[in-house]
């Protein structure tokens, strides 16, 4: 999940759109270095829609920039780089580096002076980048980024109270439904339970709903009914909310669904099995991400996408991810890099990205643009994103996945008491977090 299925997402959404500084690690050199201190100038000629017309940062004389991005995003990066060069006279070079690999590469290339000036990666890698002192805060354009983009997206690219990212695109999962089998998307899980009573035919592999019941990424909605992973917007490792009363209630309900809608063990449900049943017309609904769109569309299925059904009367929040631009702490031209990051994340830029690659905008006005709103599939994901929770970006999130997945598996496969399973998982996470802190 941490790789976000980036390639599939971009290809899938492109098909659909075509058819219709100071850091937590203690390194303060970047914030105090005069070459990294933002400066501004009047930019009356700025015509890039959504950019700061009154003021822009002053780029360094003779600046040139290197940008990392995946090959799937090449059309957008090259197009926006050309506009940027025409406007500011600053050369921008592009190098193919996968978004999920950039923090690891920047860890060595950054201090060596070999890293890109501007990088882009999913927000759940931000904690590693900040604690390693790899990226500068989004300081000069902070208010602009906050006011123009979704609050969820802004929170996702903020770490320890400091905004680092320049939000660009969003991702989450939602409910796919086969319109030939169920005309409208259910609003509640209880409705799915009722539908399953007449639709399910286990011997013939007919099921009302499937999702990856063994994967916490997809099971988070059952925690979200009064629970959370880490407090303070996912930043406080000492505040674990996985075994609150609301979370326990949600996971207890989750366990009941094995008997009522999906009588299979978690290991028997895979992406390929779900795809085969959905495209074969025996699976009515699937909880999945936009990377699935191409497979279902190519199979000729008339499907819709809607927000997840509510659970125990509570809205079901999904995990979400945000891709954003970041400025390399070790850049020779940090002001020019800030200027590019801002320029390449405006409303106009995000709409161009959507047009060329299918990336769903984080910008509020871009999301409401007719080119986005006219795409019913994309609208379904945007609606779910608006009630989503960004995956925590702190390094301690790595201690969560295995214990909580085991807890869900025990509840689903063995009928273990939800409270007991969650309490055990939380204790394991606390032990790992304290051990990690002691090791530091």
From TrEMBL:
InterPro entries documented for this protein: Maltose/Cyclodextrin-bd (IPR006060), SBP (IPR006059)
Coiled coil regions, renumbered to chain: none
Biased composition annotated in UniProt, kind: Low complexity: 32-51
Region feature Disordered, mapped onto this chain: 32-55
One MF annotation (Gene Ontology) recorded for this entry: maltose binding
Alphabetically ordered keywords of this record: Cell membrane, Lipoprotein, Membrane, Signal, Sugar transport, Transport
Gene Ontology CC, one term: ATP-binding cassette (ABC) transporter complex, substrate-binding subunit-containing
Protein location: Cell membrane
SUPFAM superfamilies referenced in this protein's UniProt entry, alphabetically: Periplasmic binding protein-like II
Plastid recorded as keyword: no
Main location group: membrane
GO biological process: maltodextrin transmembrane transport; maltose transport
Name this polypeptide is given: Maltodextrin-binding protein
Signal peptide span: 1-24
Translocase recorded as keyword: no
């Amino acid at each position: 999940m941490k790789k976000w299925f980036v390639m599939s997402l971009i290809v899938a959404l492109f098909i659909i759109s075509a058819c219709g500084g100071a850091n937590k690690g203690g390194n303060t050199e970047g914030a105090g270095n005069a070459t990294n201190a933002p400066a501004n100038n009047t930019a009356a000629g700025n015509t890039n829609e959504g950019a700061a017309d009154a003021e822009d940062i002053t780029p360094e004389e003779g600046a040139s920039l290197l940008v990392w991005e995946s090959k799937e995003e090449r059309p957008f990066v090259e197009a926006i780089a050309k506009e940027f060069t025409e406007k500011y006279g600053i050369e921008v070079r592009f190098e193919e580096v996968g978004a999920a690999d950039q923090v690891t590469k920047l860890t060595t290339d950054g201090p060596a002076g070999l890293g890109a000036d501007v990088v882009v990666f999913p927000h759940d890698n931000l904690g590693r980048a900040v604690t390693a002192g790899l990226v500068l805060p989004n300081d000069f354009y902070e208010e602009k980024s906050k006011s123009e983009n979704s609050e969820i997206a802004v929170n996702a690219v903020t770490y320890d109270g400091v905004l680092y990212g320049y939000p660009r695109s969003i991702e989450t999962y939602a409910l796919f439904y086969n319109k030939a089998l169920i005309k409208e998307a259910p609003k509640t899980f209880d409705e799915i339970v009722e539908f399953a009573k007449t639709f399910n035919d286990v011997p013939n592999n007919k099921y009302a709903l499937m999702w990856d019941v063994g994967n916490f990424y997809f099971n988070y909605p059952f925690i979200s009914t009064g629970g959370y992973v880490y407090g303070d917007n996912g930043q406080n490792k000492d505040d674990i909310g996985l075994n609150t009363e609301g979370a326990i209630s949600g996971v207890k309900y989750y366990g009941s669904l094995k008997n009522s809608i999906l009588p299979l063990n978690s290991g028997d449900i895979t992406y390929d099995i779900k795809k085969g049943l959905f495209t074969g017309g025996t699976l009515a609904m699937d909880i999945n991400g936009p990377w699935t769109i191409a497979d279902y569309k190519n199979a000729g299925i008339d499907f819709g996408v809607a927000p997840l059904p509510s659970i125990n009367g509570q809205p079901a929040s999904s995990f979400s991810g945000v891709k954003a631009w970041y400025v390399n702490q070790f850049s020779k031209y940090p002001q020019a890099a800030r200027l590019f990051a801002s320029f390449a994340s405006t409303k106009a830029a995000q709409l161009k990205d959507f047009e060329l690659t299918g990336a769903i905008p984080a910008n509020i006005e871009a999301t409401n643009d007719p080119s986005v709103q006219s795409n019913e599939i994309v609208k379904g994901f945007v609606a779910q994103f608006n009630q989503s929770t960004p995956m925590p970006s702190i390094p301690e999130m790595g201690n969560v996945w295995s214990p909580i997945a085991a807890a869900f598996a025990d509840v689903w496969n063995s009928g273990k008491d939800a409270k007991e399973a969650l309490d055990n998982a939380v204790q394991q996470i606390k032990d790992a977090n304290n051990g990690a802190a002691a090791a530091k």
